[in-house]
């Protein structure tokens, strides 16, 4: 079994400080330059802004501390996912993706990779292991799945895929390296949308790839260099700043989510709920074996679409928005994007507000919607 790792968060906050010379800024400098002063031989120096940037390098140093693995930063989660897929797949390969995971990964695969001769196979999270993994070059995992919050057994799947000669990629966006550590369970590559709770302030899109496999790392780095799919220094800087409070924000969000999930589960207006931290959730037992935290996303269903809309739009402490992981609690009906869920299904992202204020706002909104006559939708 792979060694279990966990980042030391005190050390994390002093990563930069430990290597400073007298007079250097404590905060990370934002280096906005496409060119570097480069007389003579260019080896081992930053040479061009598409290839390297000191702000990215510092960000990647911080990300590597969190993942306990070398990392490469990208301008969005999808850029990181594209890099991982394009760097590992070739014509004739088969790729397995979850049918109920983040939908853009499926579109990217079926619309672009398929055109280059990659056979794309989709399976539901609940039946992911059925049929085995023979003949798959790459198996893409998302656990918990977004938005259904079903789980995949990372350790069992990673070893089955490896035995069959393939590699695994896990999208760890919803839990972050503080909530789940796929590389320690034998997964080859972690991809993440750092647009969500990693950056955490809803003001930047970013992503990263983490892997302990040097060949894969080089391939992903070359993809970035040659595709030109690179982050702007300003976004890299914003993510670095967000990471400094990740531990505090994430702890608050997960702790609040656990309490709110218990209360929502017992509320008469809530028809059903999924949260891996609930004792009677179908994913609870597996979550306890492979997650450090149960996360800050709660999926629940009210009676009707109209009730769900009203709850989201009338709750004082909820922003109606797609995307999640910000300091502000937010929610949306996933059916509006065509996810295969009940029209009254709500994905709730618990933010950093004090939990009792949140509960008060939620219960007031639930009270309001349940008083209204039930119109069938
Ligand atoms: C948002 C998200 C992505 C895509 O990230 P962007 O930063 O929007 O490109 C990928 N996977 C999951 C699970 C996501 O939630």
UniProtKB/TrEMBL annotation:
One of its GO terms (molecular function) is lyase activity. Its cofactor is pyridoxal 5'-phosphate. Its EC number is 4.4.1.1. Pfam families: Cys_Met_Meta_PP. Keywords: Lyase, Pyridoxal phosphate. Gene3D superfamilies: Aspartate Aminotransferase, domain 1 (3.90.1150.10), Type I PLP-dependent aspartate aminotransferase-like (Major domain) (3.40.640.10). It comes from the Bacteria. NCBIfam families: PRK07582.1 (NF005758). Belongs to the trans-sulfuration enzymes family. This is Cystathionine gamma-lyase. It comes from Pseudovibrio brasiliensis.
